[in-house]
Design brief:
Shape: globular
Structural class: alpha/beta
Order of helices and strands: EHEHEHEHEEHEHEHEEHEHEHH
Distance between the termini: 28 Å
Number of helices: 11
Strand order of the largest sheet: 2-1-3-5-6-4
Bound molecules: NADP nicotinamide-adenine-dinucleotide phosphate
Radius of gyration: 19 Å
Largest sheet: 6 strands, mixed
Helix content: 40-55%
Length: 300
């Protein structure tokens, strides 16, 4: 039997997901997977889900903008991380039930682990309060840092994140600010950049005022700290370039993208990738994606 899978979004034409899953299926010799990109408008989401429920060949799908939040209300089961983040990017069709997961959290956890970042009793600064920032806050809070500060220009959105998480992670002190200048110098072990500022082909390309936010954030980092930019295109972002100037260790978003996709595979195919194979796949995918990202405008 063939397995149907897809990434749904609107727009969807620049999605890298079909290339990623095609690469993984080929490397693993999984010939049964038929993965497509489907343009699904918000008003057509329920129609798409009905079609999935009626066709037993579906194994699952990835959801991207604008479906990540709406999908939670339309599925049968929601995994705890997706529930806390308030968004899901993966659905697994299991025994006729639609189960939603958030593998962005797993992708962030994996990137931090691979970089040897330990957060116990450390302080974390997250710039942004959207879906990716919420996934980052969840991944970090699970490691029990002493403090997580959310920096966002829209303060009510940051405060809403803080109030959602403060109750779930009682050992972590959460706070929110819209003013980077108020942050004390040399205090954060980890900075996470979770806005589109600096992303290639994005309207929020890093102009002077935005670069100064990055410089202020980096001033607030400890000299041996880590800077993690969730953006994967370009690989060396304006934020990471600034962080290198202070000698911070840097992490880009490419491996988060890869690891969230491998986590999706694990959910659909019940953890079938061995550790050794996973390392080979990560590097193979990174090289494959670098070529694609350097040659055409892209999106997840
Ligand atoms: P989102 O939900 O739209 O949130 C965007 C956040 O960025 C909001 O907090 C927004 O602030 C802030 N922002 C946007 N433009 C800004 C500007 N000019 N100045 C200051 N703040 C600004 O987006 P998302 O889904 O969280 O994604 C954020 C970024 O994460 C994406 O651009 C993408 O590059 C990256 N990402 C990477 C991966 C990966 O696999 N590597 C996965 C997901 C996302 P307001 O609340 O004030 O509007």
């Amino acid at each position: 039997m063939n397995f149907k899978a897809a990434v749904i979004g609107h727009p969807i034409q620049h999605s890298l997901s079909p290339s990623i899953f095609e690469f993984v299926a080929k490397e693993l010799g999984e010939k049964r997977l038929a993965y497509s990109a489907q343009d699904v408008k918000p008003e057509d989401l329920l129609k798409f889900l009905k079609a999935v429920r009626e066709d037993s060949s579906w194994i699952g799908f990835n959801a991207t903008i604008p479906h990540k939040e709406a999908i939670l209300k339309a599925v049968d089961d929601v995994a705890p991380a997706a529930h806390s983040v308030g968004a899901a990017n993966v659905v697994h069709v299991k025994d006729g039930r639609l189960q939603a997961y958030n593998t962005d959290v797993l992708g962030i956890e994996s990137s931090l682990r691979q970089a040897g970042v330990s957060l116990k009793d450390e302080k974390v600064l997250i710039f942004g309060a959207g879906g990716a920032a919420r996934a980052a806050a969840f991944a970090c809070a699970s490691e029990k840092p002493s403090q997580i500060v959310i920096l966002n220009r829209n303060l009510p959105r940051a405060l809403s994140l803080v109030s959602d998480y403060a109750a779930n992670f009682s050992e972590v002190t959460f706070s929110a600010t819209d003013s980077v200048q108020t942050l004390q110098t040399d205090q954060f072990s980890l900075l996470i950049q979770a806005t589109p500022i600096g992303m290639a082909h994005h309207e929020s390309s890093a102009d002077h005022s935005q670069l100064s936010i990055f410089q202020e954030m980096i001033r607030a980092a400890r000299p041996n700290g880590v800077a993690f930019d969730l953006i994967y295109r370009p690989e060396r972002t304006p934020f990471l370039i600034e962080a290198e100037k202070k000698g911070l260790k840097t992490i880009g978003g490419l491996y988060m993208l890869i690891d969230q996709a491998l986590a999706t595979w694990d959910i659909w195919f019940a953890g079938s990738i061995s550790q050794n194979l996973r390392s080979v796949l990560r590097e193979g995918l990174a090289n494959n994606l670098r070529q694609k990202l350097n040659s055409k405008p892209g999106d997840q």
